[in-house]
Amino acid sequence: MRRKRPRPPAPLPQRRGIDPVRLRLPVEGTWATLRDHLVERLPVADEVVDRMLRNGEFVAADGPVATDAPYAPGASVWFHRDLPDEVPVPFAMDVRYRDEHIVVVDKPHFLATTPRGSHVTETALARLRRDLELPRLSPAHRLDRLTAGLVLFCVRAEERGAYQTLFRDRQVRKEYEAVAPYRPGLGLPRTVRSRIEKVPGIVAAFETPGEPNSETLVELAEHRDGLGRYRLTPLTGRTHQLRVHMNTLGIPLLGDPFHPVVTDPAPDDFRRPLQLLSRLLEFTDPVTGVRHRFESGRTLQAWTAYQEWASGNG
Predict the structure, then answer these.
(1) CB 17 within 8 A of CB 126
(2) Residue 83: how many CB atoms within 10 A of its CB?
């Protein structure tokens, strides 16, 4: 198997924790100048490309690209996209552990793990790169934006694959905590298996007939006043798996905007967060051999102070 060629280093620094965009120019092409290619390729007006060229915002490995630079097949060009205006997520992110290889954080609800869509600088990755001055930091896995709790990041890019392999090969013990309605006759613990699909453009994942591709152990930790506090152990990692399986059992998670009904909360609505928490990560470090066990220091408000959570005043 041929090894992949290492990605060339970007000649532009990060901006607010966000890497520049790299454009790889097609080897085959009939463009006379780089400008011709950029005008055809980028979804912006011609005058925007011209302005960026004049300002030296397109940069090749040897420096800013001239306005009349010829097209160079197979070359790379970097630039920074305009960063979107984002509503700040008004919750702190706690660093639970840090060494020369990994950073483990306790992420709040509503903060995305990595840049995606309209969430770019208001993400755990961008914050950590800025705050910890670790520009090469990268995630070993992802935690849904609406879910709080533990996330593992890699300090060194060359070690990221080793940590990602832990999650791929199910060598990480993960436990989640959730708050949902209590059903006396449900019969827990039980393992839920089903086939879950996530279609681009549809916000909610859903179950379909077919060979199961998801598995979750659901246990009841305690219950009171019609609510249950549940321990969820996912044995697979499908998108929205825990939410889908809890909804299938007839006990949808409190605060879930997708199940059983899709709602559309405003970007600045931080009330009534999804009552799902990544509580535990346990694994043997593939680089150092150290056995790690991390627990979240967060609590789920619907369990500790239901009226405050329900009123949105927490």
Answers:
(1) yes
(2) 13
For the stretch 5-28, pLDDT in tens is 667 889 999 999 999 999 999 998
Query: Could you give the CA distance from residue 198 to residue 260 in angstroms, rounded to a whole number?
Result: 16
Query: How many helical (H) and strand (E) elements, i.e. helices and strands, does the chain have?
Result: 7, 15
Pick from 60, 61, 72, 62: nearest CA to 34: 72
Sequence-distant (≥ 6) Cβ neighbours of residue 19 within 8 angstroms: 10
Residue 56 token pair = 């030296």
Strand locations in 118-264 (E): 138-139, 148-154, 173-181, 190-197, 206-208, 214-224, 227-234
Reported as a single tens digit per residue, the pLDDT across 89-146 is: 999 999 999 999 999 999 999 999 999 888 999 999 999 999 999 999 999 999 999 9
Strand pairing class (227-234; 173-181)? antiparallel
Over the range 257-283, which residues count as b (16 or more CB within 10 Å of their CB) and which as e?
bbbeeeeeeeeeebebbbbbbbbbbeb
Instruction: Please give the Cα distance from 227 to 251 (Å, whole number).
Output: 10
Q: Is 151 helix (H, G, I), strand (E, B) or coil?
A: strand
* SS3 assignment, position 282: strand
The token pair at 122 is: 């208001």
This prediction's pTM: 0.90
Q: Is the dihedral of CA 2, 8, 14, 18 positive or negative?
A: negative
- Residues 254, 260, 264: CA angle, nearest 5 degrees: 80
